[in-house]
Amino acid sequence: LLAKAGCDLSHARQARETGEPETENDHLEAALSTLDSARQLVQPDEAPSRFRSVAASYLETAARCRKLAATSVDGRPFINCHFAISPRLEAYFRTSLAALDTIATAATAPQ
């Protein structure tokens, strides 16, 4: 799943570079969906580094979708992957990443 999301993100970057917002949108939306599926398989307490990778990719993709939402095509607002973003999933990732950071800090603190 991470490879598929990476492929979608790569295609989205290529579409952005060639000025194809609709194609970029499609690939960003696909990446968000794939990363949501990956999240269901990777738990922070079982595979912290893999979870961090999924979370970071999701949060970066969501940020790109929001940026794309601020653009327009032919003078009209661009309806895009912004609607595929799950605020609850974003909050889950942010909270879980903060918890992992707290655990890592506590584990390395002098006793």
Describe the structure in your own words.
- About 75% of the residues lie in helices and about 5% in strands.
- A two-stranded antiparallel sheet has the order 1-2.
- The longest helix has 22 residues, at about 50-70.
- It is mainly α.
- It has helices at about 1-15, 20-40, 50-70, 85-110; strands at about 70-75, 75.
- It contains four helices and two strands.
- The chain has one domain.
Query: What integer is the average pLDDT?
Result: 88
* Low-confidence runs of at least 5 consecutive residues: none
**Largest sheet, if any?**
2 strands, antiparallel
Number of domains: 1
Strand order of the largest sheet: 1-2
- Please give the count of helices: 4
Portion in helices: over 70%
List keywords for this structure.
single chain; 111 residues; mainly alpha; 4 helices; 2 strands
Q: Concise description?
A:
Helices cover 73% and strands 4% of the residues.
How do the strands and helices of this protein lay out in sequence?
Layout: H1 2-17, H2 21-41, H3 48-69, E1 72-73, E2 76-77, H4 87-108
Antiparallel strand pairs: 1-2
Helix pairs in contact: 1-2, 2-3, 3-4
